[in-house]
Prior knowledge:
Elements (H helix, E strand, L loop, with lengths): L1 H5 L4 E6 L1 H11 L5 E6 L5 H6 L5 H7 E14 L2 E3 L2 E5 H11 L7 H11 L5 E7 L3 E12 L21 E7 L3 H11 L10 E6 L1 E5 L4 E4 L2 E5 L2 E15 L5
Parallel strand pairs: 1-2
Antiparallel strand pairs: 3-4, 3-13, 5-7, 5-11, 6-7, 6-10, 7-8, 8-9, 10-13, 11-12
Helix pairs in contact: 5-6
Amino acid sequence: MTGSAAEGLDVLVVLGGDGAAHQGVQFCAGTDVALGLVPSGTGNDFARALGVPSDPLAAVDALDLTARRRIDLGRVGDTWFATVLCSGFDALVNERANSLRWPSGPRRYDVAILAELASFRARPVLIRTEHETLQLDATLVAVGNTPFYGGGVPICPGARPDSGTFDVTVVGKLPRRQLLRMLPSLRTGKHIDHPAVRTLKAESVHLDGNAWPVYADGEPLGHVPTDIRCIPGALTLVGISPAQG
């Protein structure tokens, strides 16, 4: 595909879920090639954040190939991400869900959550941004370029992909029973009102202190320690028609 870009490719339209969108982001980021999304996967969190219609045919109709929009991306090493980077309980759930052959779809994550709850323990973590440094026992850390992960969970409800900053959600140490009680509030974004939750805004985030797995756009990106940067205007998107989007 690199050769195609050099030959003057103008638009790349990706049909699929967040995994396919993630691959499209790797190709288009930092170039003049505009990315269009036609969601047909399980989660479709990137498309959801951009207001792309969930129905594939409606999404195709909504593409405005004459319009362009630039948004920010996150970057870890040489890898770009568009939605949320997570580490801790949610990343462990993602890892376990990927290993399950049954059930399929969102129910796979429900099974993975229950399995992780049985053995999960908060871990020490260091979070350093350009503004502050936190050290605490944490349940999870989510770094959001957009609000959603896990098929519509607004873990970073204030995140906007054209703000030039990440929204960071940090969940401190919670007893297993309290964590279980908090899980339903994740679906509504009300978790940020919990006293164990802290939110930050940052252009760069360094995570250290343990060896938790790191996932972004639902894809594995190694383990903590890791450095995450927000790159403003790194991706050009195909426009969405207001009449359809």
